[in-house]
Design brief:
single chain; alpha/beta; Rossmann fold; UDP-N-acetylmuramoyl-L-alanine:D-glutamate ligase; Protein-Tyrosine Phosphatase, Chain A; 3 domains; nine-stranded mixed beta sheet; six-stranded mixed beta sheet; globular
Length: about 475
């Protein structure tokens, strides 16, 4: 059932939508198509105008009561608690109106349609986009009707209503997970945890608690897939071991008795009487490094829980095309390979990329996250030279200088690409890696715009036919 032939699933029900970016606009239009009475608002005049053109009814939610609304659909980027609640969120709390994520309403709509489609949720600090996309790819190759989105790609309320044979693969951010009420994930994965979004969750304990909501309401028919390659998620696995969901521990770092793991480039399920090889990562250009090994183990475990066979999992993993901005080769010029890993918005993500190379010309910087790049010190020997951009440049330079790592404060990405190419070309074959360990918002709209700018600079060098 497509968005063009909508059932009146929410006829006569009232919703408020605050925030009309990609997800919010999809929520407002889809809820209205399902028969709901929707009042929507955004603090941005440009977004309000775009919503008005899309036929959305605009109401200044800060100026009216929300009492009687079934829920407030609040954009994930708008806080309802820390660091300070948005006024509309505060109003909803004061008037006892539930605050929900769009994923919650997708689940309710699917069930209201009579469908028993299964839901798969994937979370973690890093790797959730790749794991979500890889799981969806495996399922589709196996012939299972699959919709993928939420935090990754299409917003939840732009996805099609699937029949009972379908599966939703949803990437879940900590912001979304705090705003769920009834959805139950038939299979849920927690990949890893490292410090991130602490301003929204208060501290690491609050962040972990938000992530753990992905396992809420699971029962004995459900599967909980948990990485054990970091202490935070290993502790969560131990806490979930008593059920009620079936626990599957995963690792990308080697043999894990009783779990699903990757060793010597092979994905192995060791939960039965004998280990079963599910797939091979040898020769994969899109699943490099131990972090992607963990992603592959998670996707394989999720697929097994949904009844997919080993041959189909091997086919899906072997044919996975990868995702943009995640260790994506974008050009090769005069023996220098340019790799776009702009999605690495924190040090832990950058570490996963740096660990894939013996020697690399590294472009880093942007708006810094807490802790900087000090945690990357064990990987500094792999850095031939670093080129630093954005607000973090001076602080990163100080860290690198103390460790004796050659570096240049480039300032802009354009200058960094040119400088890195000049140096890398002198010892080609070589790799220029954009893996910023920072947010992008000081110089770019988002990490995608940053990655596209990097790719454009690299391709311009290639188009220039450098001799």
């Amino acid at each position: 059932m497509t968005a063009g032939a909508e059932p009146r699933l929410f006829l006569g029900r009232r919703f408020a939508v605050m925030g009309l970016g990609r997800a919010g606009l999809a929520a407002a239009t889809r809820l209205a198509a399902w028969g709901a009475d929707v009042a929507a608002w955004d603090d941005s005049e440009a977004r309000r105008e775009a919503a008005r053109e899309a036929g959305v009814r605009l109401v200044d939610l800060a100026a009216v009561t929300l009492a009687g609304m079934e829920a407030l659909v609040l954009s994930p980027g708008i806080p309802h608690r820390l660091p300070a609640p948005h006024p509309v969120a505060a109003k909803a709390i004061a008037e006892s109106v539930p605050i929900v994520a769009d994923v919650e309403l997708l689940f309710r709509a699917v069930r209201a349609s009579g469908s028993r489609a299964r839901f798969v949720g994937v979370t973690g600090t890093n790797g959730k986009s790749t794991t979500t996309a890889l799981t969806a790819h495996i399922l589709r190759r196996a012939g299972i009707p699959t919709e993928a989105g939420a935090n990754l790609g299409p917003p939840a309320l732009s996805l099609n209503i699937l029949g009972s044979d379908g599966v939703y693969c949803l990437e879940m951010s900590s912001y979304m997970l705090e705003r769920l009420a009834t959805i139950r994930f038939d299979a849920a994965a927690m990949l890893n945890l490292s410090a991130d979004h602490l301003d929204r969750h208060g501290d690491m304990a609050g962040y972990a608690a938000a992530k753990r909501h992905i396992f809420d309401r699971q029962d004995a028919t459900c599967t909980a897939v948990v990485g054990v390659d970091d202490p935070h998620t290993a502790a969560i696995a131990d806490a979930l071991a008593s059920g009620p969901a079936r626990l599957v521990r995963i690792s990308g770092r080697g043999v894990l008795k009783g779990g699903v793991y990757v060793a010597h480039g092979r994905v192995v399920d060791d939960r039965g009487a004998h280990p079963v090889r599910l797939a091979s990562l040898l020769g994969s250009a899109t699943l490099l490094g131990t972090h992607n090994a963990q992603n592959a183990a998670a996707a394989a475990a999720l697929a097994v829980s949904l009844g997919v066979g080993a041959n189909e999992i091997a086919d899906g993993i072997g044919s996975f095309p990868g995702l943009p901005h995640r260790q994506q080769p974008v050009a090769e010029v005069a023996g220098v390979r340019f790799v776009n890993d702009s999605k690495a918005t924190n040090a832990d993500a950058a570490a996963r990329a740096l660990a894939c190379y013996r020697r690399v010309f590294w472009i880093a910087g942007g708006r810094p996250k807490e802790g900087g790049i000090a945690s990357l010190a064990p990987l500094f020997p792999a850095i031939a030279h670093a080129y630093l951009i954005g607000e973090a440049a001076e602080a990163f330079a100080a860290t690198l200088a103390a460790a004796g790592v050659p570096h240049t404060i480039s300032g802009t990405l354009e200058r960094a690409v040119a400088q890195a190419f000049a140096d890398a070309r002198a010892e080609a074959p070589a790799v220029v890696l954009l893996s910023p360990a920072c947010a992008s918002f000081d110089q770019f709209r988002d990490y995608e715009a940053r990655g596209e700018a990097f790719a454009a600079e690299a391709r311009a060098l290639a188009a220039g036919a450098v001799p």
